[in-house]
Design a protein that fits this description.
This protein is mostly helical. The chain has helices spanning 8-59, 63-152.
Length: 153
């Protein structure tokens, strides 16, 4: 019978950590994608607003409206810059998450390899024990039958 691998709790923990790292990377990728979508929306909104501003300026506008347009475009530019900063942080987090996943995967595979080696070693020991038992039984059988033959003579 194969003895249980003494490091099984560590194998299970390594699998749990790898699963958690995989889920975390998925969340980080989703956050980055959401931030990118928000940036693209802000950029499109700024482009559309800039176009409206140019049309209104060609038609003529009073200084208050001109200042309001410019102030709003400036606020959009600030929001775009802030969103670009959010994206850079998200990219950094994704990269960190990838490294973490690679580390947990490497550790998990190392423990899996150790567990597999343990199973193979135990199977070899079990096969040797079975062979030894079979040899003993064959020896007893041969001794028993050779004893019967000498009694028959």
């Amino acid at each position: 019978m194969i003895k249980p691998f003494s490091l099984n709790p560590l194998v299970n923990l390594a699998h749990q950590k790898n699963d958690a790292a995989t889920r975390k990377l998925g969340q980080l990728n989703q956050q980055q994608q959401t931030a990118q979508t928000k940036l693209e929306t802000l950029q499109q909104f700024r482009k559309d607003y800039q176009f409206k501003f140019q049309q209104a300026a060609q038609s003529g506008m009073d200084p208050t409206d001109l200042r309001n347009f410019q102030d709003f475009i400036n606020r959009l530019d600030q929001a775009i810059q802030q969103q670009q900063t959010v994206i850079e942080k998200a990219k950094s987090s994704v990269q960190s998450g990838r490294h973490n996943l690679m580390d947990t995967t490497r550790k998990m595979k190392s423990f899996d390899t150790l567990a597999q080696r343990h199973v193979e070693s135990e199977k070899k020991l079990e096969a040797k024990a079975d062979q030894r038992l079979q040899d003993e039984q064959t020896g007893r059988f041969a001794a028993f039958h050779s004893g019967e033959k000498s009694e028959d003579k």
